[in-house]
Amino acid sequence: MAKYDPDLNLVFQALSDPTRRAMLAALGQGAVPVSDLARPTGLALPTVMRHLGVLEEAGLIATRKQGRVRICHMRPETLGAAVDWLGQQRAIWEARADRLEDYVMRLMEQGGGDDA
Fold this sequence. Notes:
Elements: H1 8-15, H2 18-27, E1 32-33, H3 34-38, H4 45-57, E2 61-66, E3 69-74, H5 76-111
Antiparallel strand pairs: 1-3, 2-3
């Protein structure tokens, strides 16, 4: 399988909406028809289709026609790219926090800690 490099701006934009996150959570259980995704939202079908379009454009889902029913399924590899990016950012910030902690400890040792 070729490595898929999604546009992370589209991924994070898609994930920014609670309705779309709920749809992704439902798709985490397996492929479902659009009508099943629409039911718990209480939204009109055209609105649901716009949400699904955003998810599909971001590469988070794919749809296929099965008879008269449109079936949606999640593409977890796209979430993997976002998780990888977040992991890289976390490592950077944890390293910065560690360096700051080391610096503060050195300052406290140099000052003798008599400020109390």
